[in-house]
Amino acid sequence: MAQRQFGSVKALVFDVFGTVVDWRSSIAAEVQQLAARKGLTVDAAKFADAWRAGYAPAMNRVRRGEMPWTKLDRLHRLILDRVLSDFAVTGLSDSEKDRLNRAWHRLNPWPDSVSGLTRLKKHFIIAPLSNGNISLMTDLALHAGLPWDCILGAELLRHYKPDREVYQSAADLLDLQPADVMMVAAHLGDLRAAKGVGLRTAFVTRPLEFGPGGKPDLKADDSVDVSARDFADLAGQLAV
Fold first, then answer.
1. What is the 3-state secondary structure (H, E, C) of 106-156?
2. How many CA atoms lie within 13 A of 64 on its CB side?
């Protein structure tokens, strides 16, 4: 059924942070390692949560014109400087802060990500459609073994999701119609925005994205064309 229903789909584009990679555990591990080296006491998981919590507000400042276009690496560093202060973390050199900031280039994939993407790649063009800048996405692919065919996303348009320009670009840059492209994400807001531009949508649940006490999206809504447990399940539903 899925193969017939989505037979026109030629490309799958993916949200990355949370959908493909486990940002929270990865960032917390790097914070904990740094704290151990420096003799600091830090709640690494809460630090990761606070860093991530600054993500949407920072992008909104760019979107509203309060800041010029600023790539995500730079936004992450601005947020990091504030979070270090809030957590009373002192004594880090600029190079140590820069290395910590680049922890976002070293996030680990979910267990099914690489095998699932490799399977999907046999029948579809696969690419990230992320708010992460191109160098970040490139380093992340190398670190995590993500087998992308190309890299799409916010920096190419100088727009952050959920601006419609980002979703439209996935079709335009691949010379496809919006209905030929399927957006894959663990976040319903992302999928609603993609649906509004005419992309097909696939929801993949990531129950532990925000940790054991987190509140991720777990149930599909009417913005979702396909709902899957993980990338292997998605591949099966798309008859790959």
1. CCEECCCHHHHHHHHHCCCEEEEEECCCHHHHHHHHHHHCCCCCCCEEHHH
2. 7
Sign of CA dihedral 111, 213, 14, 79: negative
Q: Would residue 42 be called left, alpha or beta, if left means φ above 0 and alpha means ψ between -120 and 50 degrees? A: beta
pLDDT at 1: 40
Listed in sequence order, the residues at least 6 apart from 113 whose beta carbon sits closer than 8 Å to its beta carbon are 20, 21, 144, 146, 231
Instruction: List Cα–Cα distances, 187 to 25, 94, 173, 184, 227, in angstroms.
Output: 18, 34, 23, 9, 12
Mean of all residue pLDDT scores within the chain: 96
Helix (H, G, I), strand (E, B) or coil at 69: coil
Q: Read off the pLDDT of residues 82-114 as tens digits, 9 standing for 90 and up.
A: 999 999 999 999 999 999 999 999 999 999 999
Asked if residues 75 and 160 have their Cβ atoms less than 8 Å apart, the reply is no
> How far is C-alpha 7 from the geometric centre of its chain's CA atoms?
26
Report the number of secondary-structure helices (H) and strands (E) in the chain.
Answer: 12, 8
